[in-house]
């Protein structure tokens, strides 16, 4: 890419130099032509028949034969010569010496606007290359003389040659500078990109700890390197979560599988001899199978909410879902001697998936009932600006401050020893967190040890009137 850029830039400079040379050449030739035309015009005016002479009118031929007249218009590099219709010289400027202007080698040259006569460029004359203008002098309808005014091209050619050398030298210097700049550009820009490519090639799924650590660069490549390092950090964290998830899932599934296997072996040995052992084994297998099913369902829900398709969302009345969940879990709360209270304002519509939103409310409420031994569990739903805010409060033992930042992590247990005595998968709040994130909301937990916990969920609400009008 750098070579292409350098080549294109060099070509552009070459074209510019060629255009500049052609423009300068044209300017010089036009300037010469204007000077020649001006001299020729003055001579033609001066050789008109004169009536002021004491000897009577003087003919143009007589005047053109006077060297002093022609010398008064000639100058360095400017030559004048006149010929009669037969081709014999009438007169010429003294700077011509024995040389003559007419030549068979004249090449036509474009005439200037407003001029008459002929124009031509001769490369070979007795005085060298010239630009010449010739004009026919008439008396009535008869041609009596032809006037040649020529300007030497020697100085012009020297000027053009010097300009060509200057432009060629400048182009060569520019070419060297372009090559140097291209090399530095490739080394400065492409080199770091190659380093990033090498770093990316060295990264594997087992080792995501490599970083570029380009802290001193403030250009676009520095920003790219920082973005690359941040991406590696996110990938490393994601892989760590995945490994932890697999390890936790394996650990959680290991216990019920062990119990099921042990009871299956017991059934194989004692099912026909001891009905009590058979019933206990079947009950244990049923219980552990149900526990495994809960874990697997929770994991499937997590996978679903990791890549939820919002195009499948619909308008949902969140108040109806809260009331439905409260009605379904009231018997469980009463069985533990708890009051399940519900405070809902008017209907609040949000855009989401009904089954996931129901599981969100269900998980939060079940979790509160599970860890509350006495008192009450409260579901409160209200409108807060453009959002719907759901609060689930309990009077349970509370959560230590150090554990609040981790309660939404998968398989996290604030008190593992106590949690083992309580049924659950350890995925309930993680599922809730995923569902909230998939619906563009936020969740937070506030707890006071010994007094209870409040979990607040904020979800974007919609106006039913505006939505209906739009549809």
Kindly summarize this structure in a few lines.
This protein is α+β, with helices and mostly antiparallel strands. The protein has 12 helices and 13 strands. The protein folds into 3 domains: 2-159, Beta-Lactamase, CATH 3.30.450; 220-304, Helix Hairpins (Orthogonal Bundle); 308-470, Heat Shock Protein 90, CATH 3.30.565.10.
Structure notes:
There is one protein chain. The strands form two sheets. Strands 7, 8, 9, 10, 11, 12 and 13 form a seven-stranded mixed β-sheet that branches. With 471 residues, the protein is α+β, with helices and mostly antiparallel strands. The chain has twelve helices and 13 strands. α1 runs antiparallel to α4, α7 packs parallel to α8 (354-370) and α8 (354-370) packs antiparallel against α11. The protein is rod-shaped and about 155 Å long. 53% of the residues lie in helices and 19% in strands. The protein has three domains: 2-159, 2-Layer Sandwich (Beta-Lactamase); 220-304, Signal transduction histidine kinase, dimerisation/phosphotransfer (DHp) domain (Helix Hairpins), CATH 1.10.287.130; 308-470, Heat Shock Protein 90 (2-Layer Sandwich), CATH 3.30.565. Residues 51-56, 416-421 and 465-471 have low confidence and may be disordered.
Write the layout of secondary structure elements.
Elements: H1 2-46, H2 60-64, H3 67-73, E1 78-83, E2 89-92, E3 106-108, E4 118-122, E5 130-139, E6 142-152, H4 154-202, H5 220-270, H6 275-306, E7 314-317, H7 318-335, E8 339-344, E9 349-352, H8 354-370, E10 376-384, E11 387-394, H9 401-404, H10 416-419, H11 428-438, E12 442-448, E13 452-462, H12 464-470
Parallel strand pairs: 8-10
Antiparallel strand pairs: 1-2, 1-6, 3-4, 4-5, 5-6, 7-9, 9-13, 10-11, 11-13, 12-13
């Amino acid at each position: 890419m750098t070579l292409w850029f350098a080549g294109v830039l060099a070509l552009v400079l070459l074209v510019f130099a060629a255009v500049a040379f052609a423009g300068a050449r044209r300017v010089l030739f036009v300037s010469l032509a204007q000077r020649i035309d001006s001299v020729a015009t003055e001579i033609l005016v001066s050789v008109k028949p004169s009536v002021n002479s004491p000897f009577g009118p003087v003919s143009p031929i007589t005047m053109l034969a006077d060297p002093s007249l022609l010398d008064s218009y000639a100058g360095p590099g400017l030559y004048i010569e006149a010929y009669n219709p037969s081709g014999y010289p009438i007169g010429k400027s003294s700077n011509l010496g024995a040389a003559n202007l007419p030549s068979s080698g004249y090449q036509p040259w474009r005439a200037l606007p407003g001029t008459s006569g002929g124009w031509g460029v001769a490369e070979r004359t007795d005085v060298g290359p010239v630009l010449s203008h010739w004009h026919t002098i008439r008396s009535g309808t008869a041609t009596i003389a032809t006037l040649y005014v020529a300007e030497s091209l020697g100085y012009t050619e020297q000027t053009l040659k010097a300009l060509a050398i200057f432009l060629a030298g400048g182009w060569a210097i520019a070419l060297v500078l372009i090559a140097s700049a291209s090399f530095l550009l490739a080394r400065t820009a492409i080199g770091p990109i190659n380093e990033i490519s090498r770093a990316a090639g060295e990264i594997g799924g087992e080792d995501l700890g490599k970083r570029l650590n380009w802290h001193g660069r403030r250009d676009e490549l520095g920003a790219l390197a920082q973005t690359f390092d941040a991406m590696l950090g996110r990938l490393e964290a994601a892989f760590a979560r995945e490994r932890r998830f697999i390890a936790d899932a394996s650990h959680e599934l290991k216990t019920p599988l062990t119990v099921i296997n042990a009871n299956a072996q017991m059934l194989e040995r004692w099912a026909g001899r001891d009905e009590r052992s058979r019933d206990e084994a079947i009950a244990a297998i049923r219980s552990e199978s149900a526990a495994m099913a809960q874990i697997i369902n929770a994991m499937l829900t997590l996978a679903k909410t990791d890549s939820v398709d919002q195009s499948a969302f619909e308008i949902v009345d969140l108040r109806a879902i809260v009331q439905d969940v409260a009605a379904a879990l009231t018997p469980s709360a009463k069985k533990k001697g708890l009051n399940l209270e519900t405070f809902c304002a008017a209907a609040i519509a949000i855009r989401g998936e009904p089954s996931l939103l129901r599981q969100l409310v269900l998980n939060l409420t079940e979790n509160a009932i599970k860890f509350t031994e006495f008192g009450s569990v409260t579901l409160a739903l209200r409108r807060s600006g453009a959002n719907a805010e759901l609060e689930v409060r309990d009077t349970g033992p509370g959560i230590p401050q150090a554990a609040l930042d981790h309660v939404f992590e998968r398989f996290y247990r604030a008190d593992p020893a106590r949690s083992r005595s309580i049924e659950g998968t350890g995925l309930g709040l993680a599922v809730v967190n995923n569902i909230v994130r998939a619906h563009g909301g936020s969740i937070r937990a506030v707890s006071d040890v010994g007094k209870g916990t409040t979990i607040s969920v904020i979800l974007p609400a919609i106006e039913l009137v505006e939505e209906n009008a739009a549809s």
